[in-house]
Design goal:
Chain lengths: 224, 316
């Protein structure tokens, strides 16, 4: 049992439906501990991405309440949402990189939005790109990189402003086995450094032999 | 591997400290100029659309002001002719002259005696002046030619003035080309209405074209805006550079258009000096207050167009 004090994400009776009456999930109660690494799984179309989108406020739940680090998301006005997002790093299956910006600029974007000084930002971007093994490709453009490299850029962008929560939405969906392993290792590394990670995937092989908690989203309910 | 991450700051603390982060004008302009460089073609097309729209509108405005200028000048040059009765004693002339020059609407008064009027008629008839042989040179009545003050020129006021002078006992008739002025005013009123209506329609068309061109450039960058939102950009961070770009587009587009109109104006002015036909037309440029208003409206139009086009992009 996870205590409320140590939970960084808490959902109480959360449901989501799309008009007219398409219920994605309902009555979801969930607590995720600080520094935990959980897998969110389930067949395609069960609402894994929707769940993550609700967590970073790209969508609002139909009912229920969500707390992130003790703050109720319902209390966030639309103008406050960007400040929450700076605390949550999001990684997507399709990388979502700016194709007309260099790798350096893509990663620096997360720091630019918080108004970090140029010198400080440069230092931090280089540190993170070194960490993901792309220090030599800072002036490349996303389309000049392989899928695995692009995903590493996306990870670098998600973590460069030191978020305490990382939401990964099928980050290995477009990658081969070797690149998938690299991404998993990076995630493990980030988790070891204190980040709470929710890793959404429909690929059972990724958590077959793991000791991590696996949340299964099936028929609108979560089964642990 | 060292990522140097996660000092464990709380969301609540983070929210509090980041509320104070204000996007400076320097960051905003840097982003705007970076966008301008990256989307140079799209920005250029938008600026040209703004410029062309303002150009058409400015030409109509120029036409409107020149028409008004022409009507006012033509009307004021017509003046009044006050004919005196035959039995007006000559010694009354100076006092009548004084009375007329004392009127605020009057700029210049010239006395034309019967003899002088006869001389003018002879000149006018040239070779056929024999028809005047034996005619008494006093048969034409003496008159005053009045040039109206341009600053106070108004058809209503001239009519009123003519009516007042006509009541003087020494005056037999006052003529001021009323028919001409009336026709001219009806014609110029009609043209003015057409120009004004066309101008307003053009303004709406320009507003529509400009807003939609901006919308297209914003839509073309939807994906980019989504990504910027994902990493925690505020609305100001997203919208700010677009607003700076819109401001520049409005300013440059309208300035360019007015520059072209001004060049055309100078060209016609040059022709006016050379051509006998155009001499005296006295073409005028759009008054500076209206020039400033056109530039300000263009900037406002572009900025508002951007705000409207971006409304959807700024949702969650």
């Amino acid at each position: 049992m996870i205590s409320i004090e140590s939970s960084i994400i808490r959902l109480k009776d959360v449901s989501k439906k799309y008009p007219p009456d398409n219920v994605v999930f309902s009555g979801i109660d969930l607590e995720i501990e600080k520094g935990e690494f959980v897998f969110l799984t389930g067949p395609s179309g069960t609402g894994k991405s929707t769940m993550l989108r609700i967590l970073f406020c790209a969508e609002r739940p139909a009912s229920g309440e969500i707390w992130v680090d003790g703050v109720a998301l319902s209390s966030f006005s639309n103008a406050q949402v960007p400040y929450l997002r700076r605390k949550i790093g999001v990684i997507f299956q399709d990388f979502k990189l700016l194709s007309n910006h260099t790798i350096f600029d893509n990663v620096a974007l997360s720091l630019e939005v918080i108004g970090l000084g140029k010198k400080q930002a440069e230092q931090r971007v280089m540190q993170v790109l070194e960490g993901v093994g792309l220090a030599g490709k800072t002036s490349h453009y996303p389309l000049q990189l392989s899928g695995g490299e692009q995903q590493r850029v996306a990870i670098a962008r998600a973590v460069v402003n030191r978020p305490s929560i990382i939401l990964a939405d099928e980050p290995t969906g477009n990658l081969d086995l070797q690149r998938t392993e690299e991404v998993i290792m990076l995630m493990e590394e980030l988790n070891a450094r204190g980040a709470t990670i929710i890793f959404a995937t429909h690929d059972d092989r990724l958590f077959e032999n793991t000791h991590r908690r696996v949340l299964r989203l099936l028929n609108g309910k979560i089964r642990i | 591997m060292h990522l140097g991450l996660f000092e464990g700051n709380h969301v609540s603390d983070f929210l509090q400290c980041n509320q104070d982060v204000i996007m400076t004008l320097a960051i905003l302009c840097r982003r705007a100029f970076s966008d301008l460089r990256q989307n140079f073609c799209a920005q250029l097309i938008t600026t040209m659309v703004v410029s062309l729209s303002i150009l058409i509108f400015a030409f109509f405005t120029l036409l409107y002001f020149n028409l008004q200028h022409f009507v006012d000048r033509f009307g004021s040059e017509l003046g009044l002719v006050v004919f005196l009765t035959e039995d007006t004693p000559k010694d009354r002339i100076p006092s009548l002259y004084q009375k007329l020059t004392g009127l605020s609407e009057v700029e210049k008064v010239t006395y034309i005696s019967s003899e002088e009027a006869f001389g003018r008629l002879e000149k006018f008839l040239k070779d056929e002046k024999e028809v005047l042989e034996g005619v008494d040179p006093q048969f034409l009545p003496p008159s005053f030619e009045i040039q109206v003050n341009r600053a106070v020129f108004q058809l209503k006021r001239i009519k009123q003035l003519a009516g007042e002078i006509d009541k003087w006992p020494e005056v037999s008739k006052v003529r001021f080309g009323q028919e001409w002025i009336d026709r001219l005013y009806v014609f110029s009123g009609l043209v003015r209405t057409i120009v004004a209506v066309t101008g307003i329609l053009l303004l709406f068309t320009a507003a529509f074209v400009v807003t939609n061109t901006i919308k297209l450039t914003v839509y073309a960058r939807q994906e980019e805006l989504k990504i910027i939102r994902l990493v925690g950009a505020t609305n100001m961070f997203i919208q700010g550079p677009f607003l700076v770009e819109a401001f520049l587009q409005g300013l440059l587009g309208s300035s360019l258009a007015l520059g072209v109109v001004f060049a055309c104006y100078r060209f016609v002015q040059g022709l006016e000096a050379k051509s006998e036909l155009l001499r005296g037309v006295n073409i005028c440029f759009i008054p500076w207050q209206y020039t400033v208003a056109i530039i300000a409206s263009s900037v406002l139009l572009c900025v508002l167009g951007t705000v409207l086009a971006m409304r959807r992009s700024l949702r969650l």
